[in-house]
Amino acid sequence: MEGALYFGSQKRKISKPMRPLSKNIIVEPTREESITKSGLHLTKKDSDALRYKRGIIKMVGVDVIGISAGDIVHYDSRAGYSLMVHGELVTMITERDVALVE
Questions:
Q1: DSSP secondary-structure letter at 96?
Q2: Residues 6+ positions from 89 with CB-CB distance below 8 Å
Q3: Which of 11, 19, 79, 90 has its CA at 20 to 30 Å from residue 53's CA atom?
Q4: Residue pLDDT, tens place only, 52-100
Q5: DSSP-assigned letter for residue 97
């Protein structure tokens, strides 16, 4: 992820692309289907209560094994934190937070 980095009112160009370190993973959360197989509609409260979220892997750290960019994963909804990277909202999690790779 290349781009500009802001320090106060100054704008500086990043010469190297940013990447997660170690076992960190950048994931873009995806919107879950709120209808079950049997046709029941889940409320937002019920959807938010689910333990795992679904997302697309954007970047992985150098020590991550078995997961690569573009994979769809289910990860612990209580794990990680959200951050803005070049105007895009992403979530940073660790490898151990991933429960399932599709």
A1: G
A2: 82, 83
A3: 19
A4: 999 999 999 999 999 999 999 999 999 999 988 778 888 999 999 999 9
A5: G
Predicted TM-score (pTM) of this structure: 0.74
**DSSP track, 21-35:** -TTEEEEEE-PPP-B
| Domain 19-101 = CATH 2.30.33.40 | yes
For 64, list phi and psi in degrees, rounded to 5: -80, 130
CA distances from 62 to 8, 19, 55, 59, 67 (A): 31, 9, 20, 10, 11
- What phi, psi does 74 have (nearest 5°)? -115, 125
* Structure tokens, 64: 């991550």
In DSSP terms, 29 is beta-bridged to 55
* Residue (of 90, 23, 9) closest to 63 by Cα position: 23
